[in-house]
Design goal:
By secondary structure, the chain is of the alpha+beta class. The protein contains 9 helices and 15 strands. The radius of gyration is 21 Å and the shape is globular.
């Protein structure tokens, strides 16, 4: 969730209202989201807008803010579980930044989430997005955790003696005592909503064992875990036009892993090798693994010669219980 100008309620013009987004709002939304982050790539909202609003229902709601007759802001709320809501896609027209539209949109999203049973709402902000960070704090979000992406290269060659197996109960036990869980506050990639995190549960690991893959490192004791959340095809954008992974049809397949946790460099190496092999088996061109943003975890990945993202992402959390009647 990102906004380019924090405001407050006192600065909001009286001729502003928040409502559910409609198909005919597309052109207006595109007009202020085409160049959201100059020099940092294209915004995803113009590409997925119609898909977004088509998915609105009991578990999702897309909001726009109207300033007079002009659509000047957008955000979306998603229910991830019976108590967790996710806020994403906050954008404000540059002409109206600083007028409190972001606060109104957040309030509408929070009220919708509470009405649908949520007691907490989280969002994610790029660490370089200072305006988005400020907006999140102003809107009532508190810092929760930070993470980074690790990108092991898919590789079908696997050591037959690799000490990795699939045991969701062992994975859960290790997660409960790992420093990664503490650093991530128990959060990992959500199984249904992309670019969202939610509380990792025992059931999530059993579902992964049934539907995708779970990885447990250990020989005489568990020292690491990971699990695959999803894989998908992604169109290569203009920023990726020289991408060596690009397929002939202009797409690339990504494999995403909900979290990586390990005890030491050797455990990390085994875990990344298992992930690389798994990604190769399913035909992935690229991977990303959510790992804690700590000096140990990031440097362990580097010691394993695994690429990591240049900057971390921050997750914020808003307590909604004070809005529950």
């Amino acid at each position: 969730m990102s906004d380019h100008g924090a405001g407050d309620r006192t600065g909001v013009d009286g001729d502003v209202r928040v409502r559910q987004a409609r198909s005919e709002d597309y052109d207006a939304v595109v007009s202020f989201t085409e160049d959201t982050w100059p020099g940092r790539g294209s915004d995803y909202i113009p590409r997925i807008y119609h898909e977004w609003i088509a998915g609105d229902g009991d578990d999702q709601r897309t909001f726009v803010a109207e300033h007079g007759e002009r659509v000047a802001g957008i955000c979306q709320g998603v229910l991830l579980s019976e108590y967790e809501a996710w806020a994403q896609g906050m954008r404000i027209d540059p002409e109206f930044r600083g007028e409190g539209l972001g606060i109104l949109l957040n309030d509408a999203l929070f009220d919708w989430a509470v009405a649908n049973g949520a007691s907490v709402c989280r969002n994610m902000v790029f660490s370089w997005n200072e305006a988005g960070l400020g907006m999140s704090r102003t809107a009532g979000f508190d810092p929760r955790m930070e993470f980074r992406w690790a990108h092991p290269e898919p590789n079908a060659k696997v050591d037959p003696d690799l000490p990795v197996h699939e045991e969701p109960d062992a994975a859960w036990s290790y997660w409960q005592r790992s420093d990664a869980r503490d650093a991530l506050r128990g959060l990992a990639l959500d199984g249904d909503e992309s670019w969202a995190v939610s509380a990792l549960s025992h059931a999530d690991l059993w579902n992964a064992a049934d539907e995708t893959r779970v990885f447990v490192v250990g020989d005489g004791g568990t020292t690491g875990l990971a699990y695959r959340v999803r894989d998908y095809e992604r169109e290569v954008t203009s920023e990726d036009e020289n991408d060596e992974h690009e397929a002939d049809d202009g797409t690339e397949r990504w494999a995403e892993y909900g979290v990586g946790a390990w005890a030491d460099v050797e455990s990390a190496r085994s875990l990344f090798e298992a992930i690389a092999a798994d990604a190769a088996v399913i035909g992935a061109d690229r991977t990303r693994v959510l790992v804690p943003e700590t000096p140990r975890h990031v440097s362990d990945a580097a010691a394993c010669r695994v690429e990591t993202s240049a900057e971390p992402d921050f997750v914020f959390e808003a307590d909604l219980t004070n809005r529950i009647d």
